[in-house]
């Protein structure tokens, strides 16, 4: 019921776009514990979806099933028309089209920033080294740290590391970017430098799915907000609908706790 | 700016500008702070409160104490030993000690020094063989303990937990008993594994591949191959970088070496002429007068010290000029000068013979090298292949045909060696297994996830992300295990294997020079340990992950 409300909230222009990520009744168990309970949602091309919800509600689990870091046990997931199955070819194809940015950066500490970024393009996309490095410099320019190219991750600040991680994902020229709390591990003064890069990406038309606690970012950038609790989608809507006139009691409770 | 196809370049301009700003900042701060400090320094500080004076006085006192303690205890020991009639000299090195050694490169060493050398070679052989086998076994055990295969996992867990908890000495005795179960060697002792293996109370005999006549000529081909392969490798990598296609640089380079090895197999004789230049080097080396070597050594000592001081000062130089040295820095410089002086005294006064020893052994070395080319001991041309191969066999003894023995060409490992080798290898392997497992587990799960997320395959993730990091974590404790193993070889006495410790004991009994042999043992084990440390450290430094 609330989901149908939300679908009406989506503008007609958005509804007309192609589907980028489609989840239909996705179930996920950890042993006896059901972490995802029939999650159904669609992310359109060039759309920015922010996923909100209390801790333990299954946000990370959901976003991680989309590039197969977690295996779902029920329902269907399609990315750009390709369904995630046990077929390794599908998995590899989807992974090279979906970029992911983690809360803890997960840069490779034994490689320079340049090598972190060019590793996958060179070995997965078979790009030549000069091409890959030129592209990497372009991306580093875009995230604002071209002078750090030859340093190692351990020599950078947290904000710089996260920006390298974003550049590393972008180097594979993904069609979708997934962000799992990209700013939660950062000191307050570094959060904005990462959010700025993300806003820039959104403006550039990247399809993005973002789990975050940054309400300002959600309000400003999101096309739609999905609110989860206990492994279920509770409410979907535009930022305006979500923050100003939420229809669900659980949403209201959540908002009253964090705002 | 970064046109497609142009090689990416270091953004030097950015760096350079930054450093400049910093330099200026440093200069200005120094100026302001020093001007404000002058006033306070004008005040006179009493000597006993002046930190500089205190430091220097303490340093001199400590140095004097150390020298005095060394001199005092040395003197006391010498007096005591003299009273008890214990002699301290190294004469036994050149005197026949009149005992045989059961296993080793020389069964009847003609001097004490030679006997100790046989023991040292036995220790080195044992340590080296055990290190290699324990490493391989350890990796296999460690990886299988992590594997999802239930049987492999259980079996390796049981092996590791059992062997880890039994003391090494007990394990040695167990292996001694195991190998003592082998029967006497008889003419009809059966060959196992299709003739590849004989076992008996005389030991285990296996096939041997050994360097033959043409080995060194062949080696020259391989060395040339290695140099060519290096260029080929670089070229392949460059092509891969330029096109993005995998050019299999490693396999191709290995193929080049193999190709040269193959050519050398047939063409190795062409290097026979090298005998002449090598002989010339040997002669030239032998004719160097002792004083020249002494002078060279002195130059080396002084030069080394001077170079160290220069580097030290350079490292402390700031862009604003030579930085103020702390007192500790002055101590280090003084110490460096002192070491050079001590070295000079050593070369010219304490042991001038060192120089002639260097001359002689250098000359011998080139002589041996020359002999490997040209003709062999009997004056025959070296016509054989680079390698010899011998299968184990049971043959009659030459002097007494009634008893049988293994043929000498095959590799025979006496049961004493087998017992200590098996115990040391297995005992160390289980610790290495735990290190390998720990190293792989120490790579955070996020690394694998990140590798997956950017689309690397399983194998690529292992090769570029997991293994390099696991190896970095494992290296220091691995080096520790190698050190432990090397020191544990001295337990060979429990298996009656004639390592340097066992031979040294016999030398003590024969010559009575306890202290001298003690010193030789210490120097030997210290040298082995240092070599291992240096090698491990070399890799450790090269692979270190750069942090802030
Ligand atoms: N590997 C796992 N094994 C068992 N349970 C798990 C595992 N990973 C997550 N869970 C459980 O699944 C539920 C959802 O976890 P998830 O990490 O997706 O929450 P989240 O919404 O991302 O929370 P947070 O905001 O704290 O990151 C939690 O109850 C968690 O305990
Ligand atoms: Mg989470």
Structural key phrases:
heterodimer, A: alpha/beta, six-stranded mixed β-sheet, four-stranded antiparallel β-sheet, disordered N terminus, B: 548 residues, mainly alpha, three-stranded antiparallel β-sheet, two-stranded antiparallel sheet, globular, binds magnesium ion
Structural commentary:
The complex is a heterodimer of chains A (259) and B (548). Chain A is built from 11 helices and 10 strands. Chain A has helices at residues 2-9, 12-16, 59-65, 88-97, 113-123, 129-142, 158-170, 188-203, 215-221, 239-244, 249-258, and strands at residues 19-30, 33-44, 48-52, 74-79, 82-83, 98-101, 176-180, 207-211, 224-229, 232-237. In chain A, the strands form 2 sheets. A 6-stranded mixed sheet of chain A has the order 6-7-8-3-9-10, sandwiched between helices. Chain A has a 4-stranded antiparallel sheet with strand order 2-1-4-5, with helices on one face. In chain A, helix 5 runs parallel beside helix 7 and helix 7 (158-170) runs parallel beside helix 8 (188-203). In chain A, 50% of the residues are buried. With 548 residues, chain B is mostly helical. Chain B is 67% helix and 5% strand. Chain B has a 3-stranded antiparallel sheet. A two-stranded antiparallel ribbon of chain B has the order 3-6. In chain B, helix 6 (215-243) runs antiparallel to helix 7. The radius of gyration of chain B is 31 Å and the shape is globular. The A-B interface holds A 67-69, 92, 95-96, 98-100, 102, 104, 106-111, 114, 119-120, 122-138, 146-147, 149-152, 154-155, 168-169, 172 and B 2-8, 10-11, 14-15, 18, 240-246, 444, 446-447, 449-450, 452-457, 460, 464-465, 468-469, 472, 543, 545-548. The complex binds adenosine-5'-triphosphate and magnesium ion (MG). Adenosine-5'-triphosphate binds next to strand 2 and helix 3 of chain A.
